[in-house]
Design brief:
This protein has 89 residues and is mainly alpha-helical. It has 3 helices and no strands. The chain has helices at residues 28-32, 42-57, 64-82.
Length: 89
């Protein structure tokens, strides 16, 4: 049985392949935490959540129970953002 063909190299034909490749580092942790350089824009976050609530309330295919659950979750996030507690009048 014949050997399968070798895939083409990404190296140009006139250049020697590199001796070794640089080590691969896991950088996921570096990008999972919020960036510290830019302050949070609380007005933009609030507007985003309020818009999502409106989108859910007017969504044509969600059931009333699904809408209620999703809106309650987003309203809880909105309360956290604005620092208001439920039942605090």
């Amino acid at each position: 049985m014949a050997e399968p063909p070798t895939p083409p190299s990404n190296e140009p034909a006139d250049r020697e392949p590199q001796e070794s490749t640089p080590p691969i580092a896991d950088k996921r942790a570096q990008f999972t935490r919020p960036a510290t350089g830019a302050p949070r824009d609380l007005d933009a976050e609030r507007a985003f959540l309020e818009n999502k609530i409106e989108v859910i309330r007017t969504h044509p295919t969600l059931s009333p129970a699904e809408k209620e659950a999703a809106v309650a979750e987003l309203e809880a996030e909105l309360r956290k953002l604005t620092g208001t507690e439920e039942g605090a009048d």
